[in-house]
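Sample A.
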Amino acid sequence: MHRLWRVKIMSCNRFRVLVVCLVAGFVAGAPLASPAASQADAGKASIQERLNRLREGLFSGTGRVNEAIKELKGILALDPGSAEGHLLLGIAYRSQGSPELMGEAIAELRQALALNSSFVPARFYLAHIYLDLGRAERAREELETALAQAPGNPQFLALLGESERQLKNPRRSLELNRQALQIDGAFAEARYYLGLALYDLGQRDEAINELERVVQSGPNAADAYLSLGTAYLEAGRFDKALEVLLQGTKIDPARSDIRIQMARAYRSKGLLAKAEEQLKLATPKGAAALPSSFSQYQQVEFDFYLEQGLVKLERGQLETAAAAFRKVLDIDPNHGPTNRYLAEVYLRQGLYARASEYAARAEKLGFPLPEDKRRLLQEKFRRKETGGHE
């Protein structure tokens, strides 16, 4: 079964507004200054005004991130004890989408927590980054601490549910996201995670229903369209898959993973020229634009070469197909279907020793050649052994 591996944080307006509200709510709830501190408060008033402006710009998408980073560094030079300043700098680093800056983002959020351990927005955003990096265990730790400080928060419950799903606990994810939806039935992100958990549990039709509700509810999030389109593909509903995936490309034309799934849908319908068009738009370089972990980028690369190999195999372009399948196996040598596909390619090329090698690997991994091809390979290989050469 093709994995719905796309579990990056939904980049929808609801998520941006949520963090703004968390930050703003914390600042608004801060204790009033004493009269003796009024002069210091007056000195910090302009700094808070600048932070408010930067916060609004970062989460509305209208701020210039590089300029925001420069200004936040200046603010922290004046007021290194500003937990909100460190939080916003961490968010700004993360929004750059650069793996090199993820460490800087974590360091800033950790500094915010060192200044105020009850500053739950920092834990929430830190958990998001840990999920970006594929560190679901660390995300779970942060969210459990945040929930101890803010019990029943639906955003924390939903993200904890997604952490559990990534830790191979989909039933626990189901429970947590249903709790979140009982508190806020319109919370699209919780419903999205619920759909992913249902899919992992093999409840594909129920998963599709939940993902359809997410898409219909209106969040402008490419991930929801990608996951729903992939689920349609698994159900053999190729036209619906193409319809939904096309909507995803309108939201984010640069998403390689959506293009790959469109290529898969076209190939499944026998439209190989259209599949190749999508693959040309989905080169692995395009995946680098995604704010994802190296493992997620590697998954995009894996899917790209697998789909390319399948299209070229159907076209009879065996050399290109074999090269693509070898790249897949460079990433995951134990991928059973690809070992079988490569065996089939070598069989058609008359390279029977190589075909036998990969057929044996595929069978060991639970993906044997079809019986007719297995008999043909055995016959051809015996003939080569008794007097021929490849």
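Sample B.
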Amino acid sequence: MIMTPEQFLETQTFDDVYLDSQADPYKDSVFQDFKRLSSKKKGKFIERLVKEYEESLGNKTEPKCNGYDHDLLVDRGDGLRKKEIKGSFLWGDGTNFRWQQIRIDQDYDEIIFVAIYPDRIEFYEATKAEVLAFVDVQDEDGNWPYNQHGGKTKRSGTFYIDGFPQDFPFMKPY
């Protein structure tokens, strides 16, 4: 069975895809193609962007020194610090960012949060301890509200944060 492009144009699916694309806040943004990349490619380019940004500020950078525990070493004049980098575009209809795969057992000093809006990119930073104090908590029902894998009743050690940078006092602009 084959569906032609002409047949696809007559479907509700096409109508919904088209309407969704028209509602995309990145539709006319210079970041549109960046947003369309796979998660893995986005992560790679966001890490490169942070490295370039740090160097543009006169900071020294070095590649990570071990497998998956951090993304970049940065010296801002206070010695090399291990940085984990988490980037996000607006989700859905622009109601929040979602920074994912925040792992508590990895070796890093700070997390750099990159918020990519349709008209700008903002950089924030928090210490690992500050972020973990926020995400590694149970609610009054014993659930882990920020747990990313295995449901809310389990503590997987991998967390996510939903919202805007101003929602989190630990995210400090730099």
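B remarks: The mean pLDDT is 93. Residues 39-56 form the longest helix (18 residues).
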